[in-house]
UniProtKB/TrEMBL annotation:
Keyword Hydrolase belongs to the record: yes
Similarity annotation: Belongs to the glycosyl hydrolase 1 family.
Origin: domain of life: Bacteria
The keyword DNA-binding appears for this protein: no
Keywords: Glycosidase, Hydrolase
Protein name listed in UniProt: 6-phospho-beta-glucosidase
Length: 475
């Protein structure tokens, strides 16, 4: 069997991590622009340290990133050379609506993405567009408090109507919110939230998430109305939790941790809050402000497919005070003694991808789409200037083989695979450039120095071969 004939092979990026051009084309300032590198980065990402403008003494990597704003034609040509069937990217909200609450979109911003999508179409590359990938105009944070405010739903609706109308026929696959569950771990990044001392942060985060869920359902409704060909997916940071031991308490902890990941996707895929979630909110003393219209909208407009990121599995224990921790996607997890880890401490678990795929497919019975997966590593050019990133090839080979097993042996329905950071870009977690994921090397360092020249790594040629063989040749 193998991969379906129309399988969508490609790669993924996010506007704030690759685009740059933060003050060009009429673009407004966004939350992702004002997240610095260094010691305060995590405090800003989590809303503990309010930073709503550029401050002296900090470096802001997203301002220029890898300047794809001016290099997108060159970059898409390289993607086409690899044979991409799809390219996942995101729209910078503040390019379309610089402040976020305008009635009329910015034509220059609309035209930029139109040209980008036309460039994709020139090479028969299907754009897969994330509407909001950790992206919120600063004006909406300053004036309305970000997604804590219900008015955000209308502003998001305005964005969706503008892009669904303008790009009808150019874009068919859409994702509403990137890693929606990350709002609980990185609330400024995920929803433009900052917190004053004494505020009930849990209440605010779950209320903001409710607003995003309603906005997602509304986007799904509008997308289907404007073009019945549109397919809309949700997106979560996925990774099944293993119990630390066979102690039933550890098993129960892993079950609860999984539910924490699935909570918002349960709503987007099934159309209502799950009972365990309602109980959890009640235990936390959280009361969501919601309307009868919200309930009807969520129920009537569920997503067409489930997309997710997968980098590593996770481990849960009932008592974790004595267990060793390691790094993960924006937050740490318990170290699994059976797994090796990347240079950044992310555990490498290809079988975990197959397990996660089965868990998601069994739970939702909707097509899956892996929209992020990859290895962040330090890539050092040799004396010839070449990068022989065999470690990345090994990682990807094992994960693609696991995907194939999930399709062939388990019957999982998978639409496509877009590995993360197909071209080197700024790390969302650390803000570094040296943590590279790409098949394409970009000459830029952590301090913003470099020519921005693009060059092909060994993995570029390997992935080209994988795509040409539809996943059969992984050697």
């Amino acid at each position: 069997m193998g991969f379906p004939e129309n399988f969508l092979w490609g790669g993924a990026t996010a506007a704030n991590q690759c685009e740059g051009g933060f003050d060009q084309g009429g673009r407004g300032l966004a939350n992702v622009d004002v997240i610095p590198t260094g010691k305060d980065r995590r405090a800003v990402i989590t809303g503990k340290r309010e930073m709503l403008a550029f401050e002296e003494g900090y470096f802001y990597p997203a301002k220029e990133a890898i300047d794809m704003y001016h290099h997108f034609k060159e970059d898409i040509a390289l993607f086409a050379e690899m044979g991409f069937k799809t390219y996942r990217l995101s729209i910078a909200w503040s390019r379309i609506f610089p402040k976020g609450d305008e009635e009329t979109p910015n034509e220059e911003g609309l035209r930029f993405y139109e040209e980008l999508f036309l460039e994709c179409r020139k090479y028969q590359i299907e754009p897969l567009v994330t509407i909001t990938h950790f992206d919120c105009p600063i004006h909406l944070i300053k004036k309305y408090g970000g997604w804590r405010n219900r008015k955000m739903i209308a502003f998001y609706e305005n964005l969706c109507r503008a892009i669904f109308t303008r790009y009808k026929g150019l874009v068919k696959y859409w994702l509403t919110f990137n890693e929606i569950n990350m709002i609980l771990h990185a609330p400024f990044l995920g929803a433009g939230l900052t917190f004053a001392e004494g505020e009930n942060e849990e209440q605010i985060k779950y209320q903001a998430a409710h607003h995003e869920l309603v906005a997602s359902a509304l986007a799904t409704k509008i997308a289907h109305e404007i073009d019945p060909e549109n397919k809309v997916g949700c997106m979560l940071a996925a990774a099944s939790y293993y119990p630390y031991s066979c102690n039933p308490k550890d098993v129960w902890e892993s079950k609860k941790s999984d539910r924490g990941n699935y909570f918002f996707i349960d709503v987007q895929s099934r159309g209502e809050y799950p009972n365990y979630g309602l109980k959890m909110l009640a235990e936390k003393g959280i009361t969501l402000e919601q309307t009868a219209e919200d309930t009807a909208l969520l129920k009537a407009h569920t997503v067409d497919f489930i997309s997710f990121s997968y980098y590593a599995s996770r481990v849960a224990a009932s008592e974790d005070s004595g267990v060793e921790k390691t790094e993960g996607n924006l937050f740490p997890t318990i170290k699994n003694p059976y797994l090796e880890a990347s240079e950044w401490g992310w555990q490498i678990d290809p079988l975990g991808l197959r397990i996660t795929m089965n868990d998601l497919y069994d739970r939702y019975q909707k097509p899956l789409f892996i929209v992020e997966n990859g290895l962040g590593a330090v890539d050092t050019p040799n004396e010839d200037g070449k990068i022989n990133d065999v470690y990345r090839i090994d990682y990807l080979r094992a994960h693609i083989a696991a995907m194939k097993e999930a399709i062939d042996q388990d019957g999982v329905e998978l639409l496509g695979y877009t590995s993360w950071g197909c071209i080197d870009l700024v790390s969302a977690g650390t803000g570094e450039m040296k943590k590279r994921y790409g098949y394409i090397y970009v000459d830029r360092d952590n301090e913003g120095n470099g020519t921005l020249a693009r060059s092909k790594k060994q993995s570029f040629y390997w992935y080209k071969k994988v795509i040409a063989s539809n996943g059969e040749d992984l050697a």
